[in-house]
Amino acid sequence: MPIYEYICEDCQAHFEKIVLNKTQEIACPKCAGKKNALQLSVFSSANGSSNGAAAKSSGDFSGSGGSCCGGGCGCN
Question: pLDDT tens digit string along 44-57?
Fold first, then answer.
C-alpha cells in the first residue's frame, strides 16, 4: 500500500494518503475537494544525514554481524 503526497488545487493544502487501489477517489481532508495533484515524494536516508544518532545506528540492524537479518538470507 503506497503512500502518496498530494496538493489540493482548491485550497492548496498538502496531504498524504494511503492508496489501496488506482480507482480510489482522493478527497482533500481540509476542504473535501476532489481536484488534487500528485506530488513528487522526497525521502531521506540515514547515511549522509547530519543527525548523529541515525548515522551511528546504521549498519547493524540485528546486532549479529552487521547484516540486516543475521546472514540467513545471504544479504551480507
Answer: 666 654 555 544 44
Domain contains 47: no
Domain count, the chain: 1
* C-alpha to C-alpha distance for 31 and 10, rounded to whole angstroms: 8
pTM over the 0.70 mark:
no
Q: Identify any residues that bridge with 8 across adjacent strands, giving them in sequence order.
A: 36
Q: Is residue 14 in some structural domain?
A: yes
CATH of the domain at 13: 2.20.28
User: What's the domain range around 5?
Assistant: 1-41
| Nearest partner of 16 among 44, 45, 38, judged by Cα | 38
Q: What is the pLDDT of residues 16-49, one digit of tens each?
A: 999 888 888 999 999 999 999 998 776 666 665 4
